[in-house]
Amino acid sequence: MPALKAIHIDQPAPRVRRIEFVAADGGSLPGFTAGAHVDLELGNGEARSYSLLNDQGETRHYVIAVLREADSKGGSSWLHDHLREGDVLQSSPPANHFALSEAGENSILIAGGIGVTPVMSMAARLKALGRSYTFFYCARSREEAAFAFELGERHGDRLKLVLDGGDPARGLDVAALLAARPPGGHVYVCGPSGLIRAAREAARDWPKGTVHHELFKGSEADVAIRTNDGAFDIVLKRAGRTLRVPADRTILDVLKAEGIRIKTLCRDGVCGTCTVTLVSGKADHRDDVLSEDERETAIQVCVSRAMPGETLVLDL
């Protein structure tokens, strides 16, 4: 297991730390391929995986970038608050579960937030190979788009910076982008679960093995293609009523049709306004707002549905 020494730390964005490591013994590091990551043993006893953002195969150093998560359980907060230049951490050799298909003729790279890190290495490799690629980098603002300037200098007009100001409606139109597959096309997406799910759904008809994703946070269930759109029942506990939600309508649609007032804003599961207490039943959560704990007792009625065979009891 390689021992890595931090030799340089900087801050390319307000909540992002870039950390450069070299081998603690002064030797070479194991080579890696674009999209790879290493597992670091942190000084607080935790272990975390971090993508390598530098160019493929470099053996002089490894570079990672770490976003300080608001709900960090000790990974990102420790690296931000405690790691100093000269400190040594134990690391696994690089592993790659998000590998670049170098045989692809056209690559579409989509990165959201700190998900840009493995995609940076991919873009560098594609440029070195002389392959066709377009790099979409999604962020709230230019200030929060770590590495935007250096990526622009390196990739020119192949880099498309998409700034939504926190409003998903102003973000990348993934459905339109992936509606038609380019010849020999592959798509790579890394970022929030909603972005990954949108890409997988938009490219659901692409050939097997051409849609690649890596999830930094959450579970595979959060990015699964949504095919569970059958009808189901909801029970309004306080009203003592049972309502049917058809396959082509949302819970919110049905409630409003029955004169039940629910406050809404986005209707896309991203603002949290239409949260309703979930008394019982297994929900198919499709929002980007609720935490795993909150999903036990709440549901966003604008987008979420019931799991197959389930009836949802709502506190209404």
Task: Tell me about this structure.
- This protein has 316 residues and is of the alpha/beta class.
- The chain has 3 domains: 3-91, Translation factors (Elongation Factor Tu (Ef-tu), domain 3, Beta Barrel); 106-223, 3-Layer(aba) Sandwich (Rossmann fold); 232-314, Beta-grasp domain (Ubiquitin-like (UB roll), Roll), CATH 3.10.20.
- The protein has helices at 76-81, 116-129, 148-155, 174-177, 193-202, 220-223, 251-257, and strands at residues 3-13, 16-23, 37-41, 47-51, 62-67, 88-91, 106-112, 132-139, 159-163, 185-191, 211-215, 232-236, 241-245, 275-280, 283-284, 298-300, 305-306, 312-314.
- The strands form 4 sheets. The chain has a 6-stranded antiparallel sheet. It has a 5-stranded parallel sheet with strand order 9-8-7-10-11, with helices on both faces.
- The longest helix has 14 residues, at 116-129.
- It starts with a strand and ends with a strand.
